Amino acid sequence: MGNIAAMYHYVREKKGWDGIVPMHPHDFEEQLDLISKTHRIISLDEIDKFNSEPWCVLTFDDGTKDQYTFAFDILKKKGIPAYFTIMSGPHITGNIPLVHLVHTVLSFKSDEEIWELLSGMYDTCGVEEESQIYKYEQNKLRRYNKFMLNFKLSVTEATIFLESIFQSLFPDKYKFINDFYISTEEIVEMSQAGMTIGVHAHNHIPYNGDPQEFYDIEIGPCKDWMKSVLGINPIWYTPAFGGGVNQKLMLDKLTPVLVQNGFVGAFSTREGEISDNREFWMDRIDCIRLPPLGTSSYL
After folding, report:
1. An example of a Gene Ontology BP annotation on this entry (predicted)?
2. Which of 120, 141, 177, 186 can bridge 111 by disulfide, Cβ–Cβ 3.0-4.6 Å?
3. pLDDT at 209
């Protein structure tokens, strides 16, 4: 049995948020108990120290409020450390990343309404077949909508389309940001409680193929904001979308730039265990693959 890093996003009840697939807090707490039976859950500060038993690092992406409200509360109660990565863009620019616009609109507008709008405005040729990448979605219109918004439309087209609907649902964008994302004060509280805080993204875009340019627009602004506003100097990184379609290129080309700017390690979305003599990029296991939700053999 080897070392692992568990990957988490939303930890909350759905309560109307039909555009996401969250982990229920009760399942999260049960999963921590199950992991603790086979692994020692450690902080990133301990990752390069000698460990006589298999260890697990808990990693959280996106910095959404539920991670503070539910996950952090459970972790504090159990005395368990974890690693949280945050985004600076919503706090600095007031812009909501495309991925969260998609989640929000799919939660509060019916698939019938969204599809009627999309099919009336854009070319939907080939969507029925190509949307099979979302075959786990039983509703065919949900498959069509997700494919159109995430792949068929350009980022600009999808953003303009979604923001017009989002504005009708949440007229006060800044209130939404305050309610949806962990606040600066909460991030500082989590850090002071022993949680490791790392860089996730500025605007949550996938790796663009140019390591220095990508660092300058997506990583550096978040790191600088964390240092100046939060008083935290992050040395760990987790990329949005695991890098996206350019992941393999990112794992190779981005590493020297990260090291040059003080980063000591990063996490990908590749599935696998982590050796005692870890590499700079470490694999993770999606929480839904681990008991009680999944049946993988990592525990």
Report:
1. carbohydrate metabolic process
2. 141
3. 93
